[in-house]
Write a structure and sequence with these properties.
The protein is of the alpha+beta class. The chain folds into two domains: about 5-130, Beta-Lactamase (2-Layer Sandwich); about 240-380, Histidine kinase-like ATPase, C-terminal domain (Heat Shock Protein 90), CATH 3.30.565. The chain has helices spanning about 5-65, 135-205, 210-235, 250-260, 260-265, 285-300, 330, 350-360; strands at about 75-80, 85-90, 100-105, 110-120, 120-130, 245, 270-275, 280, 305-310, 315-320, 365-370, 375-380. The strands form three sheets. It has a five-stranded antiparallel β-sheet with strand order 2-1-5-4-3. A hairpin with a 2-residue loop joins strand 4 and strand 5 (about 120-130). Helix 2 (about 135-205) packs antiparallel against helix 3, helix 4 crosses helix 6 (about 285-300) and helix 6 (about 285-300) runs antiparallel to helix 8.
C-alpha cells in the first residue's frame, strides 16, 4: 500500500472511529446513568420500606410503653420533632438535608419518613444505609466489555469500509504505475540509441554543430535520468540490493562529470570540497539515485550564472544552491511523490521521494532548508 493510500485510510479510520466511539460512548454513559439511577431507586424504595416497618414498630412500642423507643437498630435511624430538632437515635447525622426526601452523602443513602400521626413530639424518622455497589460494579464491567467488543467490531468494519473507500484511488494509482511501466519500457531503447550515437559522432566525426549536439546530449541525459528514476520507483519494493562498501567520493566525481554539460548550459559556478576514499556500505544503484536526484535538483532549480557548492566528508553530503528556493508552506510536502513545489520547471515530482526512500532504507538523516528566491541547502548524514 502506497503512503498516500495509507494516509487516506488512516484519515478515514480516524474520523470514522472517533465519531463512532464518541456516539457509542455518549449513548453508553446515558444508559449507565439511567441504570445507575434505577439501581439507586430500588435501594431507595427498599430503605423506604424499612422506614415504614420501623414506624410501625415505633407505634407498637408507643402503645405498649408510652415512649418512642427505636427498634430495630438496623438500618441506622434517628427521630426528630416537628421543629426538626434531634430527639434521639442510633446515629446523629450532621447537617441533614431537610429539603430533600432522600439524598446521598458520603456513600450513604438517607431517607426521611414522616410519622403521621406523630406522638410524644416525634414527627420525622431519618434512616440511612450504605449504598450497595455490587450491581453498579457489574453494570460498569458489562458496559466496559460492551465498549471493547463494539470498538473491535467497528474497527474491523472501518478497515473494510476504508479499503472500499480507497479502492478507486488505488485503482487509479495502479493505472498510473502501469502507464509508467509501459512508458519506461518504450523509452529505454530510443534513449540508449540517442546517447550511443551522440558519443560516436563526438568521437569519430568532427561535427560542426557542437552546440546543437550538446543540447541533444543534455536532453537525452535528462530523459535517461527520468527513465532510471521511474524504473527505480517501479522496482523499489522488489529490488534486490547488493549492499557493499562503496567509494562515495569517487561516485560523486563521476556523476558530476555526467552532469557537466547541464552545469555548463546554465553557466553555473561549481565549488567542490570532496574528500576522497569516503566508504559507505550501500547499494550502488541506491547511491546513484540519491546523488543524481540531489544534483539534478540543484541544477534544474538554479538560476542562470548561479552557484552550487558540494561538500563531502566522513559524516555527510552537503549540497547548497543559489536557486529559486522553496516556499515555507511547501517544505512539509516536498517529499511526497508527484508533488512539485515549483510548477514552472519540468519533472514528475519524484526526485525527493526517491531520496526519501533511500534515506529511510539505510537509516540516514535527511534535512532540507530553503529560503524562497535565495536557495536551498540539503544535507544527508550517515554517521
Amino acid at each position: 500500500m502506497l503512503v498516500s493510500e495509507k494516509r487516506s485510510l488512516f484519515r478515514f479510520l480516524a474520523i470514522y472511529l472517533s465519531s463512532t466511539f464518541l456516539l457509542f460512548l455518549s449513548a453508553t454513559l446515558i444508559f449507565y446513568h439511567y441504570q445507575k439511577h434505577n439501581i439507586l431507586d430500588t435501594q431507595r424504595e427498599s430503605l423506604k420500606s424499612k422506614a415504614y416497618q420501623i414506624s410501625q414498630e415505633l407505634r407498637k412500642l408507643h402503645e405498649q410503653f408510652g415512649v418512642p423507643l427505636l427498634y430495630p437498630p438496623s438500618p441506622l435511624s434517628a427521630i426528630y420533632d416537628s421543629d426538626q430538632n434531634y430527639i434521639f437515635g442510633s446515629f446523629n447525622p450532621t447537617n441533614p438535608l431537610w429539603q430533600n426526601e432522600s439524598y446521598i452523602q458520603e456513600d450513604k443513602l438517607f431517607y426521611f419518613y414522616k410519622l403521621e400521626p406523630y406522638y410524644l413530639g416525634a414527627k420525622y424518622l431519618l434512616v440511612n444505609q450504605k449504598i450497595e455497589h455490587t450491581q453498579i460494579t457489574i453494570l460498569q464491567k458489562t458496559l466496559l466489555f460492551f465498549l471493547l467488543v463494539a470498538g473491535l467490531f467497528f474497527t474491523i468494519l472501518g478497515i473494510f469500509l476504508g479499503r472500499l473507500f480507497i479502492a478507486p484511488m488505488k485503482e487509479s494509482m495502479q493505472r498510473v504505475n502501469r502507464f509508467i511501466e509501459d512508458t519506461t519500457h518504450e523509452l529505454n531503447t530510443p534513449i540508449s540509441t540517442i546517447l550511443t550515437n551522440i558519443e560516436l559522432i563526438e568521437t569519430l566525426y568532427n561535427c560542426k554543430a557542437k552546440k546543437e549536439m550538446k543540447r541533444i546530449e543534455i536532453a537525452s541525459k535528462t530523459l535517461s535520468r527520468l527513465y532510471d528514476d521511474l524504473t527505480y520507483l517501479k522496482l523499489n519494493h522488489n529490488y534486490h540490493r547488493e549492499i557493499e562498501p562503496l567509494n562515495i567520493g569517487q561516485l560523486l566525481q563521476e556523476r558530476l562529470l555526467y552532469f557537466q554539460s547541464m552545469i555548463e548550459a546554465k553557466s553555473l559556478i561549481l565549488t567542490e570540497a570532496i574528500e576522497q576514499n569516503i566508504i559507505i556500505a550501500i547499494d550502488r544503484n541506491d547511491a546513484l539515485r540519491l546523488i543524481d536526484n540531489l544534483l539534478s535538483n540543484a541544477i534544474k532549480y538554479n538560476q542562470k550564472n548561479g552557484k552550487i557548492t558540494i561538500a563531502l566528508n566522513q559524516k555527510r553530503l552537503h549540497i547548497v544552491d543559489s536557486g529559486i528556493g522553496i516556499k515555507e508552506e511547501d517544505l512539509s510536502r516536498i517529499h511526497e511523490r508527484f508533488n512539485r513545489a515549483n510548477q514552472s520547471e519540468g519533472g514528475f515530482g519524484i526526485g525527493l521521494d526517491i531520496v526519501g526512500q533511500v534515506v529511510k532504507e539505510y537509516s540516514f538523516k535527511f534535512t532540507i532548508n530553503s529560503i524562497y528566491t535565495e536557495g536551498t541547502e540539503v544535507t544527508i548524514t550517515w554517521s
